[in-house]
Amino acid sequence: MKKGDHLFLVDGSGYIFRAYHALPPLTRKSDGLPVGAVSGFCNMLWKLMVSARDTDVGVVPTHFAVIFDYSSKTFRNELYPEYKANRSAPPEDLVPQFGLIRQATRAFDLPCIEMEGFEADDIIATYARLACEAGADTTIISSDKDLMQLVGETVSMYDPMKDREIRVPEVIEKWGVPPEKMIDLQALTGDSVDNVPGVPGIGPKTAAQLLEQFGDLDTLLARASEIKQNKRRESIIENADKARISRELVRLRDDVPLVDGLDVLTLQPPNGPKLIGFLKAMEFTSLTRRVAEATGADAAVIDPADIVVERGEEAHGPDVGAGEQVPTSDLAGKGAGSAGPVASKGASAAAMAGTPTPANLVATRAAEALAASIDRTAYVTIRDLDTLNEWLADARETGVLSIDTETTSLYPMEAELVGFSIATRPGKAAYVPLAHRNGTGDLLGGGELLPGQIPFAEALAVLKPVLADRSVLKIGQNIKYDWVLLDRLGLTMAPLDDTMLISYVLDGGSSSGNTGGHGMDRLAERWLGHTCIAYKDVAGSGKSQVTFDMVDIERATAYAAEDADVTLRLWRLLKPRLVADGLTSVYERLERPLIDVLGRMERRGIAVDRQILSRLSGDFAQAAAALEDDIYQLAGERFNIGSPKQLGDILFGKMGLAGATKTATGQWSTSARILEDLAAEGHDLPRRIVDWRQLTKLKSTYTDALPGFINRDTRRVHTCYSMASTSTGRLSSSEPNLQNIPIRTTEGRKIRTAFVAEPGRKLISADYSQIELRVLAHVADIPQLRQAFADGIDIHAMTASEMFGVPVEGMPGEVRRRAKAINFGIIYGISAFGLANQLSIPREEAGAYIKKYFERFPGIRDYMDETKATARDKGYVETIFGRRAHYPEIRASNPQVRAFNERAAINAPIQGSAADVIRRAMVRMEAELEKAGLSDVEMLLQVHDELIFEAPESLVDKAIPLIRSVMENAAMPAVAMRVPLHVDARAADNWDEAH
Q1: Cβ 695 vs Cβ 489: under 8 Å
Q2: Which stretches of sequence are listed as region Disordered (predicted)?
């Protein structure tokens, strides 16, 4: 190598995990071998090499190598045995692909370099040093922060997913320090993924400020006593040794004893037959065709190569933590790629064609979507099996099938399938009617099947193998509904993509993703400039509305096929945004895997005892009647208790109680808060009204209504879960809503006794203990809270002791109750006014409590201030797993609107992180149960921080420890929680006893 040469070093281990997480699971059709990561790796490498060999643009490499980690054990483990100790084993379906990816690299005629005892980053550092000494330039293909310490005059990095070059200014912009200080910065901040300890409480911004002030780590440690902030000073002094060992762990070795010198890395022209042979063996048809065209080889005469599939211990490779290190913005979505570092250095628009970056792919797709008109007259009604087979064959060719079912009900466990629509390409959509009838046209339906429809069973038999074909991605809008319905009919549908959930991940809470913003009609108007046919336009509304089986087939075709067509167009536009916006990981790990998990939970339902509900309904009715008599006696007259106007006239007109306010209509306000305030002041009538409202609501909402939700076929209640209805990622349920049953009242708990296990089985309730406070202690890094949770101390008693100086032993219940109110209130941004109302104390006293709280736990105030600043700067906040909650109105000029958004922004990372933890647990739970031989243990319900299972009595003792373990370790390996998660789990005959 000489001056003027250019070395490209690909971080192969990073590519593996980008490839693995980029696409839906993929298997080789001939034998089911997992090859998704191999496919993604080959496609990314080919795109990079095509660009690298394009002499018309920018820099052309003369030397090229792909560097891999040999294993997770290196010399660093001798320095610090806990290094990377918290990483779990790689996914089972990824293990056999490690060896295949190395064979793929060799098929590309590229050096495949690894060395036992060293990480890939050390090898990259060594080659970069040698190239620099030879006078050559180096480009490292990676975005890993660990490699940024190498950036300099002759060494740059290139992030292929963002199509972005990283030089010295970019490092400073990102981290606040130049590359030569990255080692010291990482020594201070540590790395939870690699288990590098760092200094607790020191984040990147603080570390950069300290290094700017003191120059380097050694000077900082020597002069730590000069740091003004008490907490920061004490933490650095106490953890100086951790900082020093962390520096040695993050410092890259550039003296690795390499076997191959730089000259071995000379870039060779691609060997078409060799590469095609490997690709044919892997059955990568599309890439085989592109390589054949580029190299002039005749793929038809080339035989598949012999490959070796390494499994189990033979297949060494980086552990799963390497995948967790990859920033979410690096995870490529289907159809997204990059032109490579060459394209970023002056590539023309023509040179970029066919290999778009995520950002320009999004722009291109958005322009195409707005420019393309939607022609409903082009939609087809499929009335015979031959035509249906032709359409499904096209789906296999394109690899995508947009599908939507038309039914007789909004509830999939009750609905009957009337027909389904499909789309295989934008504008190519059809409707398959199955059960349209003639009749009177009323809600009761009736009548005979209309002619020209494929027999129901025959259509489903043809559809079934395509729905199960993992090489065809099924796309839907709220596809969980279709999944449940089709699963009832014996049809398995996988893999799945959901445009509603993609939109939810991208724009949750933003102006484009507020209430109703993820519905198809709203998305079509926003992104396609198209107004969809309204359901009422085909089925009528009010008394004249009919079920879909009574809709004319031609009108049904225009409506249904449009749904499938629009969904496909939205998917093409929105899916690349996940990559461009850095949100692929959120969608792929928290949303998409949960679709069929929730679908199975909805299918299972839960048993409800009608007799218990009937008895409770009678009890509530008697109690409400007794309260009514008390209310009339206290009011001095009979009136309509349910009438806010009449109640207001009694309380504020006749009785003249203080604290009255009026609504916008001029009536007295009788809201729950006002009644609670009046009751707290000692007024009996408002207290009776509150109790009456609670009882009558429980009776009407649950004891009277729940029997109507019992399915006539399964004899169980099947709630419907909504995945995209909150800004924080919390699930909600409806029909019936099982998440709002009160648990802090005796009456509410009685309702839970009606949810029962089947004979010979038990219900298991597994509930996270104070998870939001634990998340707060983690994100705000509060030493006292962390220690209390680690020691299993009563957190509210500890808080009271810290604040009020009262010993934990023998603490009065009222003192603990006040601390508990503050603990939970802080999470929701409670004000002095709110706390005063909650504790029935003067506002000044409540303000003093809050002030004292922040003095004892200053990290919480820091967290709140930093979170509000971040929200104002970016317009959103993030959970610890990267989910975004948007608050565009946090900059509003209206103080009340602004304050509300600030409180919501403070709470969202905490509540959202807790919601993400339980989502991760749910995604993993079924596989872990099956692996342990506990497939008869079924997950039935999710209620906020609680999961409810049903299990045979004989399996309960084995199931509970496993369920608890999965839930308590759900954050790993993505996030190493500073605070242990704790789950309480019990089994009983009904839900109340199990909780």
Answers
A1: no
A2: 315-339
Which of these, 512, 934, 554, 981, lies nearest to 775 by C-alpha position? Answer: 981
Domain boundaries, the chain: 6-313, 366-582
Tokens (6 digits) for 848:
């003093």
For residue 433 the two structure tokens come to 């009617």
What are the beta bridge partners of residue 164? Answer: 159
| Residue entry with tokens 């995870």 | 331
Helices (H), 176-271: 182-189, 204-214, 217-222, 230-238, 240-250
Confidence of residue 65 (pLDDT cuts 50, 70, 90): very high
At 443, the pLDDT band (50, 70, 90 cuts) reads very low
To the nearest 10°, report the CA torsion of 535, 541, 544, 545.
40
Joined tokens for residue 429: 């959509």
Taking the CB of residue 746, how many other CB atoms lie within 10 A of it?
Answer: 7
Q: Highest mean pLDDT: which of 34-38, 498-502, 646-650?
A: 498-502
d(CA 558, CA 752): 46
For 544, residues 6+ apart whose C-beta sits below 8 A from its C-beta are none
Q: Strand 720-722 vs strand 732-734: parallel, antiparallel, or unpaired?
A: antiparallel
Q: Lowest-pLDDT range, 177-186, 331-340, 619-628, 898-907?
A: 331-340
Q: Which of 264-273, 276-285, 555-564 has the highest mean pLDDT?
A: 555-564
Least confident of 70-84, 350-364, 441-455, 782-796: 350-364
Give the mean pLDDT of 352-371: 69
User: Phi and psi of 425, rounded to 5°?
Assistant: -150, 155
* Domain spanning 366-582, CATH architecture: 2-Layer Sandwich (3.30)
Sheet containing strand 428-433, strands side by side: 380-381, 428-433, 417-425, 400-407, 473-476, 496-498
User: What is the model's pTM?
Assistant: 0.65
Find how far residue 540's CA is from the centre of its chain: 37
Cβ contacts of residue 687 below 8 Å, gap of 6+? 679
Q: Residue holding tokens 């022609």?
A: 375
Q: State the Cα–Cα distance between residues 229 and 619, nearest whole angstrom.
A: 60
Q: What are the b/e assignments for 802-833, b being 16+ CB within 10 Å? A: bbbebeeeebeeebbebbbbbbbbbbebbbbe
* Mean pLDDT within 531-543: 90
177 half-sphere exposure, CB direction, 13 A CA radius: 26
Closest CA to 768 of 628, 894, 944: 944
Q: Which residues contact 419 (CB under 8 A, 6 or more apart)?
A: 405, 406, 431, 432, 433, 434, 435, 436, 453, 548, 556, 560
Identify the bridge partners of residue 942 per DSSP, sorted by sequence position: 947
Which pLDDT does position 954 carry in this prediction? 96
SS3 492: coil
CA distance 911 to 819: 20
Burial class of 703 by CB neighbour count within 10 A (0 to 12, 13 to 18, 19+): buried
In degrees and rounded to multiples of 5, residue 433 shows phi and psi of -75, 140
Class for the domain spanning 6-313: alpha beta
Return the H-helix or E-strand segment holding 557.
helix 553-580
Confidence at residue 161, expressed as pLDDT on a 0 to 100 scale: 64
The confidence score (pLDDT) of residue 333 equals 32
Q: Which amino acid is at 994?
A: A
Q: Read off the pLDDT of residues 292-340 as tens digits, 9 standing for 90 and up.
A: 988 888 888 999 988 877 654 444 554 444 333 333 223 333 333 333 3
The helix (H) or strand (E) run that includes residue 424 is strand 417-425
Handedness of CA 657, 662, 668, 673 (dihedral sign): negative
Q: Are 908 and 916 in contact (CB under 8 A)?
A: no
- For position 763, what pLDDT does the model report? 98
